[in-house]
Amino acid sequence: MSRPAFSRLPAAVDLPLLLQALAAIGEDDWHGHFNSAYYAGDWSGVALISAADALTELAPGRGEPLLRAPWLRDVRWQQGLRDLSLEIVCARLLRLGPGGRIHEHRDYDLGEPDADLRLHIPLLSPPQVDFLLDGQRMPLAAGECWFLDLSRPHRVDNRDTRARIHLVLDCRPGAWLEQAIIDGLATTPLPKPGQDTFAQFQALVASDPQLCKSLQGVQDNEAFIARTLELAAERGLAFTREDLRAAMRDGRRQWNEQWSA
């Protein structure tokens, strides 16, 4: 069985204990993410475990894993993950502040043969945060543990007034983890129909000939985006220019794949 794009693992973490450890992290411990071109707003992190040869503690590397100060001084990080049989080579806290956006990108290194597997454990997960993987919204809830294949296109938009904080683990492939990913597929929740406001608008366009006609005559991309946002707002549906641009890029990609198959 090939590895899926995502899976909510049937594994428990001690969320209250991890939140206690998170509360002990000082504001001075947070540092801006090294991929500054990939985001807008506050995308920052705290290294718990990182490679010895990494350019910064938050950056990837291939050297020996080093236990950083926040991990060493607070045993609650290890205790909170005690039921997960993992070989962790990198552990980071990643924070996306209110209004922050991580632009669509791919972590190509995670798609290489024998690459590490990346797990996301949401610690603070406000409702108005959209994490899209291959254009599909991931319903990530606090205390859950998710495998995400981030070599695929993904992006995050925090429209909430509170920060989103995930504990992100890069782990070596192993028998327990591979089986947990497979076992999790049966209970992995998918977004409910209509949960994504852009998907709702797409459905409206498909079912309303007049609405469809009002967009068909708009040739210029920027004018099309502006008109789409205007029509969506009139119907109480809010999404952003970047949401629409990403959907347009994805549509072109699917079209190209269909004709090159």
Features:
261 residues, alpha+beta, Jelly Rolls, 2 domains, eight-stranded antiparallel sheet, five-stranded antiparallel sheet, 8 helices, 25% strand, elongated, disordered C terminus
Q: What does this 3D model show about the protein?
A:
The protein has 261 residues and is α+β, with helices and mostly antiparallel strands. It has 2 domains: 182 residues, Jelly Rolls (Sandwich); 64 residues, no CATH class. The protein has 8 helices and 13 strands. Strands 1, 2, 4, 5, 6, 8, 11 and 13 form an 8-stranded antiparallel β-sheet that branches. Strands 3-7-12-9-10 form a 5-stranded antiparallel β-sheet, with no helix packed on it. Strand 9 and strand 10 form a beta hairpin. The longest helix has 20 residues. It is elongated and about 60 Å long. The C terminus is likely disordered.
What is the correct CATH architecture of the largest domain?
Sandwich
Summarize the main sheet.
8 strands, antiparallel
- Total of helices: 8
- Mean pLDDT figure: 86
- Radius of gyration over alpha carbons? 20 Å
Give the total of beta strands. 13
What is the top-level CATH class of the largest domain? Mainly Beta
**Could you say what the CATH topology of the largest domain is called?**
Jelly Rolls
Number of domains: 2
Tell me the distance between the termini: 22 Å
Question: What percent of the residues sit in helical stretches (DSSP H or I)?
Answer: 25-40%
- What's the SSE pattern? EHEEEEHHEEEEEEEEHHHHH
Overall body shape: elongated
- Strand fraction: 15-25%
